[in-house]
Design a protein that fits this description.
Number of strands: 3
Number of domains: 1
Largest sheet: 3 strands, antiparallel
Radius of gyration: 15 Å
Number of helices: 6
Distance between the termini: 10 Å
């Protein structure tokens, strides 16, 4: 039976996302290669350091696989962040991409805000959840 985890603080999640986004913005300054590295980072970030992206590591968050009760691995991270990397790539397409990408991000945010455990669409695909490392509850 899977453990039940407490919803991570939304403010911490937002700040972690800002840190990860800042890293991608720095990468954007490298023509072409920066965009590719940024997309790869978005896909793999939650499986690189035991379920923690750079932003999550700094703020004490991690991504866990709900059924395995383990830190997210690279495959979990890819599944979880697939929708975000699609938005990231769409930003490159003038006008239509600039409209669709924010819609994807807003939909993901609405999932987080409306779900009792803070699970977004990407989490549903990967069967993952963001938690605060200090607040793990078992039932």
């Amino acid at each position: 039976m899977a453990e039940e985890y407490i919803k991570a603080d939304l403010g911490l999640r937002f700040l972690a996302a800002l840190i990860d986004s800042a890293l991608c913005i720095v990468l954007y300054t490298i023509p072409i290669l920066g965009w590719i590295i940024g997309a790869i980072y978005i896909l793999l970030r939650d499986g690189l350091f035991g379920g923690e992206s750079l932003g999550k590591k700094v703020l004490g968050l991690k991504v866990i696989h709900l059924e395995k009760n383990q830190n997210a691995n690279l495959l979990d991270s890819i599944l979880r962040n697939l929708t975000l990397v699609v938005a990231y790539i769409l930003i490159l397409i003038p006008v239509i991409g600039w409209i669709i990408a924010p819609i994807i991000i807003i939909i993901e945010a609405l999932f987080v805000l409306s779900d009792e455990t803070g699970i977004r669409f990407g989490d549903r695909l990967a069967k993952t959840q963001v938690i605060e490392k200090a607040l793990v509850r078992q039932e």
